[in-house]
Amino acid sequence: MRKASLAAVVGVCLALTASTGIAGADDKKSAQDVINKLQSEGYTVNIDRIGTAPMSECVVTNVRNPQQITQWVPYVGPGARNENVLVLDIVSQSISVSLDCNR
Questions:
Q1: Rounded to 5 degrees, what are φ and ψ at 39?
Q2: pLDDT digit string (tens) for 6-17?
Q3: Strands 44-50, 3-4: parallel, antiparallel or unpaired by DSSP?
Q4: Are 58 and 99 in contact (CB under 8 A)?
Q5: What pLDDT, in 10s, does the model give residues 56-102?
Q6: How many other C-beta atoms lie within 10 A of the C-beta of residue 65?
Q7: CB atoms near residue 92 (< 10 Å)
């Protein structure tokens, strides 16, 4: 897992807030593009959908509930001294995507 400082975690949270707003219903990307982007950012994507149309015909209606599970771990790396420095380690992250797949 990646090591992240508190400042980096705050930055990720702010970026996540911005990206979830962008990936909403007004997004011109396909549903699969939105899902792929979130997965490439390290998210486990939970999908709920209405309708039976193929994914290529689905529209993203909502992106919500970003969750991160973190734990404090000792920092070992460049610049580490004999001090006990802890950093947040992102253990997992998930997000929910709603799709409208009615024809």
A1: -65, -35
A2: 444 444 444 544
A3: unpaired
A4: yes
A5: 999 999 999 999 999 999 988 887 777 788 999 999 999 999 999 99
A6: 11
A7: 12
Are 93 and 42 spatial neighbours (Cβ–Cβ below 8 Å)? yes
* 27: pLDDT strictly greater than 50: no
What is the pTM (predicted TM-score) of this model?
Answer: 0.64
Side-chain half-sphere exposure of 83, counting CA atoms within 13 A: 6
40, amino acid identity: S
Write the DSSP string, 33-65.
Answer: HHHHHHHHTTPEEEEEEES-S-GGG-EEEEEEE
Please state, in angstroms and rounded to a whole number, the distance separating the CA atoms of residues 71 and 64. 23
- Select from 74, 64, 68, 65 the least CA-distant residue to 90: 68
Question: Would you give the DSSP letter of residue 56?
Answer: G
pLDDT of residue 1: 41
Residue 76 · residue 6 · CB < 8 Å: no
Q: Which residues contact 49 (CB under 8 A, 6 or more apart)?
A: 58, 98, 99, 100, 101
